[in-house]
Amino acid sequence: NAGVTQTPKFRVLKTGQSMTLLCAQDMNHEYMYWYRQDPGMGLRLIHYSVGEGTTAKGEVPDGYNVSRLKKQNFLLGLESAAPSQTSVYFCASITPGQGVMNTEAFFGQGTRLTVV
Amino acid sequence: RKEVEQDPGPFNVPEGATVAFNCTYSNSASQSFFWYRQDCRKEPKLLMSVYSSGNEDGRFTAQLNRASQYISLLIRDSKLSDSATYLCVVILYYGGSQGNLIFGKGTKLSVKP
């Protein structure tokens, strides 16, 4: 099915380990986003990309890096995981600017990450 | 001040009730507005876009007030299945934050029998 796919769906890391989360979309969307969601905090933007080869910091970028080498993929990296990065991570994609009626953000199903 | 603010609730209402949520946004560069619904431990899904003239989809009505910088969602004849968290979303199109898709923290609705 078309849409946004996140891998992995679950992961347990030890403090200090590294990992990469992959977000892939097949809708030719320009903009892609990584969020984390914690209880009582809502969705907080980590990094985003407005096109292939571009990235920008969001609200909570520290401890994360991203890359958008291909339009369809947006990677989120944790170089040295910390327990504070235990969260649910969502990826989203959108092609804005076509008018409200044609704009919708599609989400992946989330990655539940636990850092112990 | 947060870019997008919502009353977190919870709103506990009986079936059949009418309930309204408000959301305020601080950045006048905000150009597109949406309501999303999120069920427990699931990804957010689009409920409805919010048009300048206001729009209705069945039991749901969304309004936008650009002058006061708020949007609203009205749910009529609440159903048990409406229980969820409702997220207010804006997209910024100008300035250094161009392309930001910003979410409010969400308003939790619980519809009781």
Question: What topology emerges from the helices and strands here?
Answer:
The complex is a heterodimer of chains A (116) and B (113).
Chain A: E1 4-7, E2 10-13, E3 19-25, E4 31-38, E5 42-49, E6 56-57, E7 65-67, E8 73-78, E9 87-94, E10 106-107, E11 111-115
Parallel strand pairs in A: 2-11
Antiparallel strand pairs in A: 1-3, 3-8, 4-5, 4-9, 5-6, 7-8, 9-10, 9-11
Chain B: E1 4-6, E2 11-14, E3 19-25, E4 30-38, E5 45-49, E6 55-57, E7 60-65, E8 70-75, E9 84-92, E10 101-103, E11 107-112
Parallel strand pairs in B: 2-11
Antiparallel strand pairs in B: 1-3, 3-8, 4-5, 4-9, 6-7, 7-8, 9-10, 9-11
Question: What does the model show?
Answer:
The complex is a heterodimer of chains A (116) and B (113). Chain A is an all-beta fold. Chain A has strands spanning 4-7, 10-13, 19-25, 31-38, 42-49, 56-57, 65-67, 73-78, 87-94, 106-107, 111-115. In chain A, a hairpin with a 3-residue loop joins strand 4 (31-38) and strand 5 (42-49). Chain A is globular and about 35 Å long. Chain B has 113 residues and is mainly beta. In chain B, 0% of the residues lie in helices and 54% in strands. Chain B has strands spanning 4-6, 11-14, 19-25, 30-38, 45-49, 55-57, 60-65, 70-75, 84-92, 101-103, 107-112. In chain B, strands 2, 4, 5, 9, 10 and 11 form a 6-stranded mixed β-sheet that branches. In chain B, strand 4 (30-38) and strand 5 (45-49) form a beta hairpin. The A-B interface holds A 31, 33, 35, 40-43, 45, 48, 50, 56, 58, 88, 90, 92, 94, 96-97, 100-101, 103-105, 107-110 and B 8, 32-34, 36, 41-46, 49-51, 87, 89, 91, 93, 98-106.
